[in-house]
Amino acid sequence: MVKICCIGAGYVGGPTMAVIALKCPSIEVAVVDISVSRINAWNSDQLPIYEPGLDGVVKECRGRNLFFSTDVEKHVSEADIVFVSVNTPTKTRGLGAGKAADLTYWESAARMIADVSKSDKIVVEKSTVPVKTAEAIEKILTHNSKGIKFQILSNPEFLAEGTAIKDLFNPDRVLIGGRETPEGQKAISTLKAVYAHWVPEDRILTTNLWSAELSKLAANAFLAQRISSVNAISALCEATGANVSQVAYSVGTDSRIGPKFLNASVGFGGSCFQKDILNLVYICECNGLPEVAEYWKQVIKINDYQKNRFVNRVVASMFNTVSNKKIAVLGFAFKKDTGDTRETPAIDVCKGLLGDKARLSIYDPQVSEDQIQRDLTLSKFEWDHPTHLQPMSPTTVKQVSVVWDAYEATKEAHAVCILTEWDEFKTLDYQRIYDNMQKPAFIFDGRNVVDVDKLRDIGFIVFSIGKPLDPWLKDMPAVA
């Protein structure tokens, strides 16, 4: 029986290995992590991450050919294929701080693999890693190999959170990069055979190592660029009275462009987009390409601008102050159908409002109070380090209360900010919300989920990203 071990039981490792176990019943899959609480959660009825469809897949395979364990060395030692899916946070100090990926966890994983291996292994990069990481890992393994042979493959993930299981069942492509040597090609074939259990062969792409690593960064950069492009246009729409939804629809019907990732919003988030673009910027700078680096930096700048613009719009509309005003925040996760808050625009928006002394009442159906408080107190990039290396009990932000009901959040509020596009926010009883709010009652829709005309008929003053401005807002311009 082929044995696979994945180091790292997070958003990538857990779902990916669960689907491999489901689709390949003849393969034994172990997911290992040093976090006892995380492994306990994977072995319980309350999984550590929320992802539609994941629960059923895990429960069908767990204990049969899918195992979650903290015995990292045992499972790595026994495996034929070792996936490494550990954190690659952005460096906070030293060379490349604020841009380069921190490979500390990757390096320690590689050294541990070399230490405990008693047989030849295929080591697969599954984390998002900078180009040339494979070469560094290869050197560590080779210099510590004690005669054991290792082949390094790059197999980047292209999952979208919220649809990860669907994406894994039916991927656009599976990308495998390896050395262009007989041993490298054999390793590629071995991993390809795993995916071929359910992925059509023409969707399994093989490249050299560097192309696979760069393809991941490039794909995320291109997607983020589309969001920043439509968000830049949304600012112009508000200034001119155009409707960004109509503009985006018109642009998206061009077959050369297509409609995906053209939804204007308060900004993009998630664990990958910003990190990967910063990584790309750093690689460009290191390779003497400052103009290319500057081009990709602009994607991040527009994203930051969009979040700042939203906060300024809220403050300017409410008589230029939100001091001591209750503001309801609906949604904290970076997108619907996930509990992930990494780089969510909600963090910067909330911090901006707190900076003007607002009182926040936050509701998100999948994000806990502890997580929200942690996110609002951690420094930039700290979130991407393993939980046990983060501050144990972050200070509570006293101006923030977290509630478990949208109506409780909005009661007596001066304004509502919608920051995640959860489906339930489309069908709330907005008349009831209006009746229980301070007047004038404002709604700032950062995800374009509400029916603007209907809300204006109720009596709300509504701001919706990239939509023609409410007359009230025209009189109170937001200074960016």
From TrEMBL:
This is UDP-glucose 6-dehydrogenase. It comes from the Eukaryota. Residues 328-452 form the UDP-glucose/GDP-mannose dehydrogenase C-terminal domain. SMART domains: UDPG_MGDP_dh_C. It is an enzyme of class 1 (oxidoreductase). The gene is LOC103492904. Belongs to the UDP-glucose/GDP-mannose dehydrogenase family. The active site is at 272 (nucleophile). Keywords: NAD, Oxidoreductase. Coiled coil: none annotated. NAD(+) binds at residues 8-13, 33, 38, 86-90, 127-128, 161, 272-275, 342. Pfam families: UDPG_MGDP_dh, UDPG_MGDP_dh_C, UDPG_MGDP_dh_N. GO terms for biological process: glycosaminoglycan biosynthetic process; UDP-glucuronate biosynthetic process. It catalyses: UDP-alpha-D-glucose + 2 NAD(+) + H2O = UDP-alpha-D-glucuronate + 2 NADH + 3 H(+). NCBIfam families: NDP-sugDHase (TIGR03026). It comes from Cucumis melo. Pathway: Nucleotide-sugar biosynthesis; UDP-alpha-D-glucuronate biosynthesis; UDP-alpha-D-glucuronate from UDP-alpha-D-glucose: step 1/1. GO terms for molecular function: NAD binding; UDP-glucose 6-dehydrogenase activity. Its EC number is 1.1.1.22.
